[in-house]
Amino acid sequence: MADSPQSLETLRPANPDTSLRRAAQQIAEAQSGVPVIEAFFDEATFTASYVVWDGETRAAAIIDSVLDYDPASGRTETTSAEAIAAYVEKHGLSVEWLLETHAHADHLSAAPWLQHRFGGRIAIGEHIVTVQKTFGALFNAGADFARDGSDFDRLFADGDGFRIGGLDVTVLHVPGHTPACVAYVIGDAVFVGDTMFMPDYGTARADFPGGDAAQLFRSLRRILALPPNTRLFMCHDYLPQGRATYQWESTVGAQREGNVHAHDGVSEADFVAMREQRDATLAVPRLILPSVQVNMRAGHLPPPESNGVTYLKMPVNAL
Fold first, then answer.
1. Backbone angles phi, psi at 301, to 5 degrees
2. Is 6 inside a domain boundary?
């Protein structure tokens, strides 16, 4: 069950600017290069997952893990998750958190598999309930699917704070790509989810149900109001033309100077016009239907039916 708001031992500032100031102060006070961060890139889904850990306590969080899925056969594999598990075991880490930046539409989460192996709590932003209601209706999910976030162990509000060992973490609500997107500010690093990509690729789409280009622009500017040397870690890289290697780490300063969609000087109106025009040309993500069905359940597959088999629904002509 997700923690109730009354049970959260955390400060929840009423003013979003207070949340941002708190994050900026945390970054300013953090030791440079802390936390320890290891990236795992899944080329099949262009996804960067992360193990983030405290070098003193060896407490760790795993962010945006991937469960391998073949849509042709309907089979899952744990190759990507096993690479993360091997790293955790090699370094003797204690997994405290399995963090999702949002309900991904391009890959299935491996959080339950990793939780079964290492423990820890699966967490996401509190606005996942909006996603659950929208997609619960699309998939005609039955009464067994609660639309209250209780599939997750913890729901975060904007400005919530928690710790990974000795590391301070601040949560920022950054909607636009989806209503539920959050960024995790950990030490001097920010895990931005699907808000922005590397400067030469730009920003995430905003045309999914509940997405909003104007909201995305404001979320981007909010992140980019953090100190210029703040490290930013992307959730995806799509290897744009002219670059030969995948990349997933940038800085606030680099994004403000060079992001092809959202550099300093781009107005909200211009960004929205660009984003809406570009989004109209993009194909539906290959794994959106299986991914969201699973990820809205915190990475759990739907319950087996009477024959013991689990099924993923494919709504026809509905997207």
1. -70, 155
2. no
